[in-house]
Amino acid sequence: MAQHILALAAEEAPERLQAALQSLGEGEVRAPGPGRACGEGCPGAGRAGPCSPCSQESGVLRRLMVYKHCVPLVESGDLHLAKVSEIIGLLMLEARQLPGRALAELATLFVDVIKGGSLSNGKSLELFSTVLTALASSKECLAYGKGELNGEEFKKQLINTLCSSKWDPRSVIHLANMFRDVPLTAEELQFVVEKVLRMFSKLDLQEIPPLVYQLLLLSAKGSKKAVLEGIISFFNQLDKRQKEEQRAPSVDLEVATMPLDQLRHVEGTVILHIVSVINLDQDLGEELIRHLKTEQQKDPCTALCPFSVALLLSVAVKHRLQEQIFDFLKTSIVRSCKDLQFLQGSRFLQDLFPQKYDVTAIILEVVENSAFGWDHVTQGLVDLGFSLMESYEPKKPFGGKVAETSYGLSKTPAQQACRLGASILLETFKVHEPIRSDILEQVLNRVLTKAASPVSHFIDLLSNIVVSAPLVLQNSSSKVTETFDNLSFLPLDTVQGLLRAVQPLLKVSMSVRDALILVLHKAIFSRQLDARKAAVAGFLLLLRNFKVLGSLSSSQCSQAIGATQVSVADVHACYNSAANEAFCLEILGSLRRCLSQQADVRLMLYEGFYDVLRRNSQLASSIMQTLLSQIKQYYLPQPDLLPPLKLEGCIMAQGDQVFLQEPLAHLLSCIQHCLAWYKNTVHLHQGVEDEEEEEEEDVGFQQNFEEMLDSVTRRMIKSELEDFELDKSADFSLSSGVGVKNNIYAILVMGICEVLIEYNFNIGNFSKNKFEDVLGLFTCYNKLSEILKEKAGKNKSILGNKTARSFLSMGFVSTLLTALFRDNAQSHEESLAVLRSSTEFLRYAVSVALQKVQQLEETGQTDGPDGQNPEKMFQNLCRITRVLLWRYTSIPAVVEESGKKKGKSISLLCLEGLLRIFNTMQQLYAARIPQFLQALDITDGDAEEADINVTEKAAFQIRQFQRSLVNQFSSAEDDFNSKETQLLITVLSTLSKLLEPASQQVLHSLLGWGKMCVVAHRCDIPCCKGLLTLLFNLHALYKSPVSLLRELAQDIHACLGDIDQDIEVESRSHFAIVNAKTAAPTICLLVLGQAEKVLEEVDWLIKKLNSLGSDTSEDSSQISNQTQALEKGVILQLGTLLTAYHELVQTALPAGSCVDMLLRSLSKTYAILTSLIKHYKQIVGGRGSLPCVGSNTSLSASLQVKLSGSHLTPQCYSFITYVQVRPKLTKKKEDEAAAISTVMAKVLRETKPIPNLIFAIEQYEKFLIHLSKKSKVNLMQYMKLSTSRDFRINASMLESVLQEHNTEDAENDSTAEQPDENQEPKKKRQRKK
To answer: Which residues does the annotated region (Disordered) include (predicted)?
Structure first.
């Protein structure tokens, strides 16, 4: 029969074929022969359709039989794909003709096949999509269960059933593809998307990318947010699981997840799919940004994970959303840094809401992950890095010098963001070789184009790049040489930083070095002074780093860039050391020409020669000979001729103007340091090795220098000021040429004296005669110093009003101080007594130490040898600190006799120096603070490398300064030193930053001392500010200071009185520091300022509460517990703070800043109360009642409202009335009344704080009414409705005015009786606290 039907189909005889088909029984249609199953009869199916009309029941049944047979046949895998496609195409064409019930039956068949897991290749699903589409358009009523549904509803039920059933993981991709062709409602699409997302975890990792692609194409119908959220959440969880396994590897192999490289490659492929779909569907990219912004408000850790950041950066490269994405990322980074900084400043916040995420670490993790072939992310990383560095680069103050912060720690969020940008670029440079040249080119371009603005951050990045890969940079050497062509046009600081940065590259690339030398040779003859100085800086750098054969090792180097960078690539040493000598001598020849140029150029040479010697010892002879020939131009060899130096040759006159031509003191300083180093290092080294005839020449210039310096010393001591044309009657004003010349002479002579002081002390070997020479030189120095100070007091245009930088080196200062104050050797006693006998010399030594520490604190380096060596500076600071600490604690300032001389005492200078050293340590040497504190306790030997408890060491130092402060407060009134007290308080504040907040014992003892000091009755305003600020800072280390604010507010109220003059405030003083002198405005403003910080913390917590309330991604019980803890903290803070405001609004504050700040603070308080009520309004529906903070706490939400309604709002209105009416009540003295009226009018006109406060109160009451209605709790029972501010009658005020009017009428009446003078005044009411 089958052969007959096929023959009829081939003959195209529809009538006969239809008759034959109608004669077939059901069993014959359902069971074809084996040969037909292989596809031989399937071409006839196309003819069977028209011959089985849907108008006949039998035709419909035959069609269904064909469909039911073909679906398993197609999925069996026995047919060729071409045959399968042909069959599915034929069936899809005929499907729309089927009636609704047949479509429903066929669709149910497909659902059963999918639920049974019978799909193999998914080809039949193309037919399923057509069936569902046709079913949706069917208007028939179809039986479903016991009822009937139309086609659309039937389809919905089928999809619901399908998405609720179990899917074979192999068919998920086919099903996702199938649903793209099915018209789906939003609800149906949501079912499908959620089902596909749930299947992610059941698939192999390699199957995820194609499924994601199908899901993204499906998102064109809608549910974009759900698709993106599901994809990001899935890979975020995988990353977290991978990190946990890396921290604690799983023993169970079945539990272990995929390899890391496989995960990263899959993530990269998924990101590429998303980017490609976004390029076709712009709405998907906008939805991505909207979703991440929303999630960031809820949980930043979920929103910004490594996968989502990498996705954003990939989208930003070739998309119009780049600006939005970078703005979002930069805002997130800065917000994260601000939150971290905010948390670090408050122990209260750290306990309530510990920081869970760090955007900086996440972005750097993206850089690390991009090594797994994520080339599509690298350009976004580069753009983000430069965007961060440019958006948050250091700012140049108007008319001022750029503050260098590169040597310090990143403190502000902007600095941290800029540092993050540099880290991104550096790590990307290390990981991705193809983009290295692009990064280097952009960095160099910014160094050149941003010369007018700070570029230190770009130079630091360039330095790190060169150090990381100097050999790799040889390929980009052309870009560096192009940059050298512009050196002459760059600022000197930029040139020096740039040359230091590329220095390792100079050692491995001869072409770069030669290009630099050509540029420097041209610059040295430039007309521009900065170009010449740049040339000198470049040549000195080359001399320091290209060693001549036989030079000492670089371990003796004092330059900061030596140890790390030179060791990177010393390739030239293998083949070029001998040739370097001619090269260096050629450079020295060029530099000798600079000795005839401007003073600034010579100054750079003199300051750089010493470092060259330290790095390149074989150049000693040439450099020393150069210096000798230079000094001979100004040295007078006649032994009896005074003065010994020709100062007139050091200046140059051009018309009426006089300039310094030769910085003679710097020249002598250079000679002195080079000679000392030569004698201690090279000469001894040659003596050990017995090296040859050059010693005679070397000894020649050494002897010349020594004889010259001895002669200059002897004659400088004998010289009088008149010999230098300087005396007290000389003109030192800068308005005349003579005055300028005298100023230059004075500075030169003082510098020469200081250089000779250091020289003679070093060679003296504790000889009494040498120390007498030192004191003689100081006498000359001191005379000139006093004259300049005296003239500066009379004339502000004299150089003496700015203390000139000392020529003493930092190392010598530490040696000198140790000898003066701590040297107890018997053999040194007689000679040191000469110096110790001069109080002025002792004060001078400590003053120079203070100046050096200040320079180090401000610039990160000091003048003189080893000034740029951090290790040497650290050692010198430790030595100086030990001496200053011993001197201050051993000899108090009260005991010290300062005599009639004006100026600070030595003890006060020591204390100021200690303060600067503690600040410098925390800025520059934060990592070495343990060794620093250990060094203060160890006088011999280095600090041990054992575990050092910083808190214990700092607490020990704190106790020493505490005793000094207690002595200040307990001393007689005449002995009280306000300046010393302020310094002590600042020192204690600085040291308190070193304490570990967790060490409760130290903090409790410290707080107990703080309260004891605050009880001190004698304290001026500056000390009062310092003490309270210190106390607030200590409170912030372990708890909130709200209780302290309440006590201070009560004291202020008791001290200043009540706004109602008839009420007498009960005096209950907590702190004696609060008195009529300090209560207002000093303490009041401090209390309000601290209250502002508490309000900021509460506001921050409420925002976190709102984010937790809207977050549903985590465990609900965990969120509930955290929410309750935050609510408790907010309510307790606000409740205590309201009691403090309750006291302040009843205080008779003087007009001015206190009133203005209190009104502003109250407005902010009510705004925060309103935010809290809004939060409760959002969550009250879920809880069904107002939240309570717990049974152990009396405050709850309702009590909070009650407290604000009874203790704050009525008093606020009374205070407003007091502020507005007070000027009218104090008109007894017209001048005073006019002044107060002017002040109040200005406050009311400019700031308008009162209307803002009233508006804030009314907004608070408005939302209270809304919350009452929603929670069905009458919260307004605690609130008294506000009086209309437009029309109010103050009864007491009206009564007083009427009384005054009646009194005036009585006085006008001639028959009025005189009042009784003995009448008792009205008794005051006492306000209960």
So the answer is: 1298-1329
